Amino acid sequence: MVPNPALGVVFHWLGGLASGSFYVPYRGVRRWSWETYWLVGGIFSWIVAPWIIGGVLTRNLPEVLAATPWSTLFACFICGLFWGVGGLTFGLTMRYLGLSLGMAIVMGLCATFGTLVPPIVRGVFVTQVLQTASGRTILVGIAICLVGIAIAGLAGIAKERTMPVEAQQTAIKEFNLRKGLLIATISGVMSAFFAFGLDRGDPIRQLTVQHGTPSLWQGLPVLVVILLGGFTTNFIWTVMLNIRNRTGHEYISPTANVLSYSDTSGPQPIEETALTGPTTSVLVHSTAAVRQTVAVPLLRNYLFCALAGVTWYMQFFFYTMGETQMGKYKFSSWTIHMASIIIFSTLWGVAVKEWKGAGRAAIRLLVTGLAVLIGSTIVIGYGNYLATLPGAH
């Protein structure tokens, strides 16, 4: 198959759109704690979708995995396990550094390590990257991406400064630069292990193509193994939270006890969505609070979690497709993916009015950051295009 970097960039944009959108369905989940809806959605993300979609679009998926060397399976699984740690520590990063600064540091580290380490480990960084025009162009694109991430972080910080004093104090009450930087480093580096796992999965790609799988879908069997590792980490953590918070009954319970307050019209329940679950709700009303038994929309919750989980998986579905179009510089896919995630998640933030009243300075930085990130994906795509030209070296 002849590489088509322009098409590859489009696939990566679609992956970024899926990643930036997957959390939206969780807004429809009601009266479940974070650990409950995260595990239910994760089962669809890490188990159901990879096996069903991989089984349909590739040939002889079980046989391919059975024929894969154990060393390859183990390496991909461990990379997924470590990537899961990166995802879980991401929340702690937000807690100690705030969303904007934490996001910029984690995504910057993840983009850098996930993109540059694979060619360094393979021993081709100097010969195929530094010593070629296409490789140097890709490096420029990576640098532009990091600048864009930094600008997006500054936009978020500027936005936070426009918040009321009370909200700022709530947001930064646990701010701890030293602890936050340490955890952000762990999160960024560990999250990059997904890219390392994809790189180590080349033997699986070769086997599935030999079994007749079209080149476009060759990365899907690799996802099955990596995501199994990610599932393991998240399963252990969410079940521990279910036990600690006594929320294990939520998977099957048709009712829940929620806080309610009284006003002139009688008892009013405090709506608890997936974003403010029953284990983290804070009563903000001055009137007396009481516990009220309400119905839990179980079927609705499962459907929204399934939608969120499958949407999350689609980011890597399109990612593996994009990789096949990038030629020998497929490692650059990771930076495009990171940039696309920030672009589309930010656009969702604008759509749901998270940036309303942010101020002109924040909006200018936001627009600039998005423009720089979009530009970085185009530059990286152009670098890959240069490698496809006759006589390219």
- Helices and strands, in order, run as HHHHHHHHHHHHEEEHHH
Integer count of domains: 2
**Helices and strands: which structural class?**
mainly alpha
The largest β sheet comes out as: 3 strands, antiparallel
> Which oligomerization state do the chains in this entry correspond to?
single chain
Instruction: Kindly report the average pLDDT value.
Output: 84
- Binned strand content: 5-15%
Describe this entry's structure for a reader:
- With 393 residues, the protein is mainly alpha-helical.
- It is built from 15 helices and 3 strands.
- The chain has 2 domains: 5-253 and 312-386, no CATH class; 255-295, no CATH class.
- The protein is globular.
- The two termini are 19 Å apart.
Fill in the keyword field for this structure.
393 residues, mainly alpha, 2 domains, three-stranded antiparallel beta sheet, 15 helices, 70% helix, 5% strand
Secondary-structure map with pairings?
Layout: H1 5-21, H2 34-57, H3 61-67, H4 70-97, H5 99-122, H6 125-130, H7 133-161, H8 165-172, H9 177-191, H10 193-200, H11 202-210, H12 220-245, E1 255-263, E2 266-269, E3 289-295, H13 298-324, H14 333-351, H15 360-386
Kindly summarize this structure in a few lines:
It is built from 15 helices and three strands.
